[in-house]
């Protein structure tokens, strides 16, 4: 890769990192392209050399977030027993989700008006779901409704935690009980 291309990619990385910083300070939708340009040390029109607009920046943030989730999911050390495995996945996902409120909003809450991830970015999120389907199959869960129930359960707990007690653990403490209820319904001996 030539030096010019490396500088271009490094500047894109700087822009995305600054967008995350601004999102952490002002909320996911609380910053402008002018503020972003200032944070990177360029003029606002220069951002268009790297991204076609704010939605493309959000798309890059979305894609990178799901890539991080996918990578962490792949290396997660899981116990062999089904309940232990589900419990480990639940705690790990909960902690990942609440660690970065702006990332949580972008990945799961659809708070950016009109933003739709690109086909490529959405494909990464599908890979995450396929990995979870595989993990479920490994513990004897084959029912299609199980994954929907799981995501609704975990996202509900995460949402309650972030909405009502950010930084606390009130809803995190319910994970064991919720995983056990889920397992009673969906884990089949085999």
What is this structure, in a nutshell?
The chain has 8 helices and no strands.
Word description of this protein:
The chain is mostly helical and 190 residues long. Helices cover 71% and strands 0% of the residues. The chain has 2 domains: 51 residues, Orthogonal Bundle (Arc Repressor Mutant, subunit A), CATH 1.10.10.60; 134 residues, Tetracycline Repressor, domain 2, CATH 1.10.357. It starts with a helix and ends with a helix. The model has no long low-confidence stretch (mean pLDDT 94).
What is the rounded Rg? 19 Å
Alpha-carbon distance between the two ends: 51 Å
CATH architecture of the largest domain: Orthogonal Bundle
Number of domains: 2
Q: What is the name of the CATH class of the largest domain?
A: Mainly Alpha
**CATH topology heading of the largest domain:** Tetracycline Repressor, domain 2
Q: Can you count the beta strands?
A: 0
Name the CATH superfamily classification of the largest domain: Tetracycline Repressor, domain 2
Mean pLDDT, to the nearest integer, reads 94
Give the oligomeric state of the chains in this entry, treating copies of one chain as homo and distinct chains as hetero. single chain
How many helices? The count is 8
Unreliable stretches: none
Q: How many strands, what sense, and barrel or not for the largest sheet?
A: none
Strand content of the residues, in percent? under 5%
Structural classification: mainly alpha
Q: Which percent range fits the helix content? A: over 70%
N-to-C order of helices and strands: HHHHHHHH
Coarse morphology: elongated
């Amino acid at each position: 890769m030539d030096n010019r291309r490396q500088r271009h990619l490094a500047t894109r990385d700087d822009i995305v990192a600054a967008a995350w910083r601004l999102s952490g300070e002002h909320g996911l939708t609380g910053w402008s392209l002018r503020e972003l340009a200032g944070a990177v040390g360029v003029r606002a029109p220069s951002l268009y050399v790297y991204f076609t607009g704010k939605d493309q920046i959000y798309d890059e943030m979305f894609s990178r977030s799901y890539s991080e989730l996918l990578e962490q999911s792949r290396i997660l050390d899981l116990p062999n027993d089904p309940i232990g495995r589900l419990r480990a996945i639940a705690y790990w996902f909960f902690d990942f989700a609440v660690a970065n409120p702006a990332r949580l909003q972008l990945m799961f809450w659809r708070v950016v008006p009109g933003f739709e991830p690109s086909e490529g970015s959405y494909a990464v999120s599908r890979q995450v779901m396929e990995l979870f389907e595989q993990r479920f199959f490994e513990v004897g869960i084959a029912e299609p409704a199980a994954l929907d129930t799981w995501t609704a359960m975990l996202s509900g707990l995460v949402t309650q935690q972030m909405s009502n007690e950010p930084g606390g653990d009130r809803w995190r403490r319910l994970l064991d009980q919720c995983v056990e209820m889920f397992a009673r319904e969906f884990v089949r001996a085999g």
